[in-house]
Amino acid sequence: MVLGSVAVVLGGSVGGLCSAGALAPHFDHVVVLERDELPADAQHRRGVPQSKHPHFLLNSGRRAIGELFPGFEDELIAAGGLHLMPSMDAAYLDGEGWSARKSSAMTMIYSSRILIERVLRDKIRSLSNVELREGVAVHGLSVHDGAVTGVQISTSAGDERIDADFVVDAMGRGSSVGDWLVAAGWPAPPVQTLDAKVTYTSRWYDLPSAEQRPSSWWWQHLVIMPTPDKGQHPAEHDFLVNFFPVEDNRVIACMGSWGHPMPRSTEAFLESARRVRTPLFASAMDRCTPTSQVHLTRSTGNKWRRYDRWSTPPKGLVFVGDSICAFNPFYAQGISSAASSALLLREHLSRAGSVDRRFCAGFLAEQRKLLGVPWRLAMARDQGYECAVGTEQLPEWKRRILAAVSGPAFSLIVGAAREDAVVDEHFSKVFNLDESLGQMMTSPRVLAGLVRYRIRAALGRERVPYGFDPQAEPPATDYSSADTARTAARTGTQV
């Protein structure tokens, strides 16, 4: 069903491209307006500074993009993306030491943000009714009788207006659309915020060839979680660290923290790397060839513009991605949330008779439910930090309780997931935004699995070993087999 002649998407990043894919079956012409001149290949650009850091493509995002653009995942892998099982392909340092290597329910696609966008642009350019306009600055909306009827733009050729039957705001954290709507007579939307002062810094490297890598490098991804130690320790032990594989035999070495100053220079980056919880991170970088300077990002606060709370939202306008709800990037929720919102938009359009005010209000209401899942996950972690500020900041007594229980609770879930397939499956769904944390924690079977694991741990009868020495190489043994796990637990094997 064609719902209008022209739809306009503001922004040509992941959220905008996915929105264009959602709109294409329902409008005669879809125009994507992007400020940058877009590269033909997978290259960094000014409008996406976060592309220089690791990006996880969660399963919910993989599925949403795949439904919008059939064949996307195969094309991403063909272009160099890696399909891995983190529990088998990643060395994971959590709690007091390395976790055991074993199969699990979760797989992921590893690639750079720039490759994801390049493959999406290729998919968009294959759609005959989608136009991708570059070098365009959007500086206003046209509004008439409570409806958005077009956008005002500037190009190298001058100013112009594009009339539109429908507009999607995908301009990210810095979107001015809310300000333009206030100027047109709408009230300022309520805004929920929580900034946990997250800063992260990354550097890109070329890996050595497979023949030149140490025999102990069974892993492709290295993850170092913050220490649970509450006593005196180097600031770097509080860092979340990734040695993150991407296409073309490259990795992104990334360190991030809540509330700590992070290294800005190459020298400081290398010095900090040698003080993290395991020497493996720095030694791995030493074997690689650096290909970039250090990139630092501080714009990481959680921010939800509550357009859904307007009693009379504009007709002909919706919001996707960071323009409505931006998350702490540590939790890898941005791309998947944006893609899922675009898929939700396509589903609503397929049922709509028109894109009137009722349509826009209904979409915002359903989108609220979708965004609530990742938002609550982000709050569950960030509200526990003393440095966190914003409208969602907890009273100090509540913050202390959350800080005290969140770490042990997470460790309990991770430990139970090592040994219980049902807990593992639910934990994978929560991590990938396919299930809320509340749904998981109200499952009788999950609760039984957590209690059973807690009892076994108290008796020293865990089936899968953990806590391997962080100063040593992570163990290569595959503990997927119940026999292997039982033998290791009985003999204390740590290989």
Automatic annotation (TrEMBL):
It comes from the Bacteria. Residues 476-495 have a biased composition (Low complexity). The keyword Oxidoreductase applies. One of its GO terms (molecular function) is monooxygenase activity. Residues 101-349 form the FAD-binding domain. Pfam families: FAD_binding_3. Residues 466-495 are annotated as: Disordered. Keywords: Monooxygenase, Oxidoreductase. The keyword Oxidoreductase applies. PANTHER family: THIAMINE THIAZOLE SYNTHASE (PTHR43422:SF3). This is FAD-dependent monooxygenase.
